Amino acid sequence: MISTGILVLILSLSGANSIHSQKLIMHMPEGDHIFKESLMQNEIEETEVSHTILAGPQSHREKLARKYEHILIFINGHGTLRSGSDSFSIVPESIALTNAKKSVSIEVTAGDTLHYVHIKKKLSKLDLKELKTFPPENREGIYFKRFEDCEAYTEKIKSPNTVSRTVLPKDHAPRVAMGTVDTKGPDAVGAHEHPMLDQLFLGLSGNDARVFADTDSIAFHEWEILHIPIGASHWVTVGEYKRMYYQWMDFFLTTSGQEWLKTHKKIEDDKNTDK
Predict the structure, then answer these.
(1) Which residues are CB-neighbours of 255 under 8 A, at least 6 positions away?
(2) Which of 8, 207, 218, 271 is the most buried (most CB within 10 A)?
């Protein structure tokens, strides 16, 4: 017999709903200390997504193939990220761009369990050429940020109650940008479309919203990832007493498509405009 959860996943990934989604497994299988699952297979071209669980105590070495850009998104639990002499304290809701490192070590202490999503984007010849134009400081060492420390921005499609942050700005990874959206209901992110990019949403802690794309809609919960159909008119709503809190991940088809990010206005820019 197929369980309800598995049936929903099968229907979603088979195309019964154009908003493909997948729930992350958030419990370590009994007897294991490391678990890895693939997410959103074949959804974003030349991009692999996975979710890893590490149960302490252990030190895990994450190998980083040179032909890929590697982005680690730490969603739950604590640990330490090490690379050479560099060390970063991992907390829930933080991001690391590993740049040219061959591997990184992730340490988890006894009694803690760490969850992270690994984005592997294959670097094209154009990407490698573009990397040479990036500011050197954007590619030195490891880019590591806690979401709460990232730059806030506003956008016309969002209400004044919404807190949005850019967690991975442009010109750090070729044709990739990421950010978060956080608000309490009733509220909404207004309808919009962007045919210049593919987009994933990752539901963060407490997220309980609903996503619409053209004529389709789907409930969107915490620890869930979904793919917005490219070019679809889409919007997100959240009901009263509920929270909308998710990470968006933009994968641009071309370098010029990143002009879309100009719709995001830094908070201080908005203040200057008002004057």
Answers:
(1) 126, 130, 174, 175
(2) 207
- C-alpha of 166 from chain center: 11
Other Cβ atoms within 10 Å of 75 Cβ, number: 22
Residues in the chain with pLDDT < 70?
Answer: 1-17, 100, 268-275
First to last CA, the chain: 64
Quote the tokens at residue 238: 């959240």
pLDDT digits (tens, 9 = 90+) for 103-137: 999 999 999 999 999 999 999 999 999 999 999 99
* Residues 199 and 251: beta-carbon distance below 8 Å: yes
3-class secondary-structure state, position 13: helix
Least Cα distance to 193 among 209, 179, 219, 214 occurs for 214
Domains of the chain (ranges; CATH) run 23-274 (2.60.120.10)
- Closest to 232 in 3D by CA, of 259, 208, 199: 199
DSSP-derived secondary structure letter, 255: S
